[in-house]
Amino acid sequence: MNIFKKMKVVGIITNLYLKGDFNMKNWKTSSAGLLAAAGQIMLVFGVPQDVCNAVTVIGLFLIGLLAKDHDVTGGKIAQ
Fold it and tell me: Is residue 15 in a domain?
C-alpha cells in the first residue's frame, strides 16, 4: 500500500471522528480510546502486529482503569 493510500485511510477515519457527534466528557478515557484505536491504525503503516496489539491492549486497559459509570449507585454519601 503506497503512502497516499495510507494517508487517505487515516484521513477518512479522522473525518468520521470529527464529523461525528462525539460527546467527550472525560479526556482521559477519550485519550485511552484513541490510543487503542491507534494501535490498529498502525498496522496500515507497516508496524509489526505484536507492537500494534500491545498498544491496543494498553489503551483498552487504561479505558477500564479510568472509566466510571455515569450514574453510580451504592456506597456511602456524606450528608
Answer: no
Which band of pLDDT confidence, cut at 50, 70 and 90, is reported for residue 73? Answer: low
Torsion of CA 5, 10, 11, 12, to 10 degrees: 90
Which one is predicted more confidently, 11 or 20? Answer: 11
Q: How many domains does the chain have?
A: 1
Residue range(s) defining the domain that contains residue 31: 24-68
- 67 neighbors 30 (Cβ within 8 angstroms): no
- Residues 54-68 as b/e (b if ≥16 CB within 10 A, e otherwise) read ebbeebeebbeeeee
Q: Is residue 17 part of a domain?
A: no
The angle, 0 to 180 degrees and rounded to 10, between the axes of the packed helices 3-19 and 27-41 is 150
Residue 52 lies in a domain: yes
